[in-house]
Design brief:
Blueprint: E1 19-20, H1 27-41, E2 53-55, E3 58-62, H2 67-77, E4 84-87, H3 88-94, E5 107-111, E6 115-117, H4 119-132, E7 143-149, E8 152-157, E9 162-165, E10 168-170, H5 176-182, E11 191-200, E12 213-216, E13 222-226, E14 229-233, E15 238-239, H6 249-262, E16 270-280, E17 287-290, E18 297-301, H7 311-323, H8 334-337, H9 350-353
Parallel strand pairs: 3-12, 10-18
Antiparallel strand pairs: 1-6, 2-6, 3-5, 4-5, 7-8, 8-9, 11-14, 11-15, 11-16, 12-13, 13-14, 17-18
């Protein structure tokens, strides 16, 4: 495994809000999430020395003009979880600082079986499993050239290291289309979108015990407790080139403003701020499958904001397609994940391909 940075999880995986819930994505994403959920609560023996998840309620709250959207979301979640309806008093009991009543939340739905995930434990667990199987992780190995030869793929890094394999798995996140271009493979039109998160102190004396991960029914705001503080995101999706994303002042201010709109508190000081890139395929579904325009090039990309919660099942999907093991999820067909669903709409930039 070639990692461009000096450590795994440097970009999106290490900056995720790390919540498993069903208010994200569509039915396919929810099916992948549900099928892999048990992995987090009961990982294989020896996978991790620390728990990978802990229970945290997932609350979606709505103002009066958002009630139709809330019920639509509840119906979409029902095949995968059992969201409980809440009135304004139920919302306030679960999240006391949330504004309720006129101009505030009048209802909500809560999945009390939501899971807060440990991204570090998950990353280290997968890395440990790879090493136990005689795999090697090479960090600081940014790819310079990729060539297809008679024996398979030849990859050279910027440090002039050379590697070869019959199958090349493109799991480069925001850089996946760039890697495809280096290999002479048609890009998929993946779009990196930047998301911002801030942390701040709650009002003095606030007890955050039992608070949920909470989000608006629309993509406006989410927030949750973390280490005695709160973190929040304005759920921004600013298009970006692949990069080490940094938080912009506007999105930081927007996050604080939306917190103050939805919660009865002031954000006196932003303690920390960061940003990450969530990379989406054109239909906002993950991509797993062999490219149709060359042999041995496997796409594993477009995990958007649901990469961690779908990781166990996407790993099994990739194993099935590459190694020929049984297909792991009856609710999803391979073609629904395959790159062939996009055709060849994107053209290769000859300058990149060369």
């Amino acid at each position: 495994m070639l990692e461009a940075e000096d450590a795994i999880g440097f970009h999106s995986s290490g900056r995720s809000a790390t919540m498993l819930h069903f208010a994200l994505g569509d039915a396919l994403v929810r099916a992948l999430t549900l099928a892999g959920r048990d992995f987090f609560e009961a990982p294989p023996d020896g996978f991790s020395d620390v728990p990978l998840a802990r229970r945290m309620p997932m609350l979606v709250h709505a103002r009066a003009d958002e009630m139709a959207a809330l019920e639509e979301l509840r119906q979409e979640i029902l095949p995968f979880a059992t969201p409980e309806k809440l009135d304004a008093s139920g919302v306030a009991a679960l999240c006391p600082l949330l504004r309720t009543g006129a101009g505030g939340a009048v209802a909500g739905i809560v999945d009390r079986d939501g899971l807060r995930l440990d991204p570090h434990g998950l990353l280290q667990g997968f890395a440990g499993q790879l090493r136990k199987r005689r795999g090697t992780i090479v960090t600081g190995a940014r790819v310079a050239t990729i060539e297809r030869g008679s024996g398979g793929w030849e990859v050279e890094t910027e440090r002039s290291e050379r590697f070869s394999a019959p199958v090349l798995v493109n799991a480069a996140g925001s850089w996946a289309d760039t890697v495809a271009g280096l290999a002479g493979v048609a890009p998929l039109g993946l779009t990196p979108l930047k998301r911002t998160i801030i942390t701040f102190d709650p009002p003095p004396g606030t007890d955050l015990g039992g608070w949920p991960f909470a989000k608006t029914v629309g993509d406006e705001l989410y927030f949750a407790p973390e280490g005695g503080r709160l973190f929040a995101s304005p759920m921004d999706e600013g298009p970006s080139d692949p990069c080490d994303a940094q938080a912009d002042e506007y999105e930081v201010a927007l996050a604080a403003h939306r917190v103050e709109e939805r919660l009865a508190m002031k954000v006196e000081r932003v303690v920390h701020r960061w940003a990450g890139l969530r990379t989406f395929a054109p239909d906002r579904r993950p991509v797993a499958g062999f490219a149709e325009d060359t042999d041995g090039f496997f796409w594993l990309a477009g995990q958007g904001g649901f990469g961690l919660q779908t990781a166990p099942m996407m790993a099994r999907v990739a194993e099935s397609l590459i190694a020929g093991t049984p297909w792991p999820i009856a609710e999803v067909a391979p073609a629904e994940l395959g790159p062939g669903r996009f055709g060849q709409a994107a053209e290769i930039d000859p300058a990149v391909a060369d």
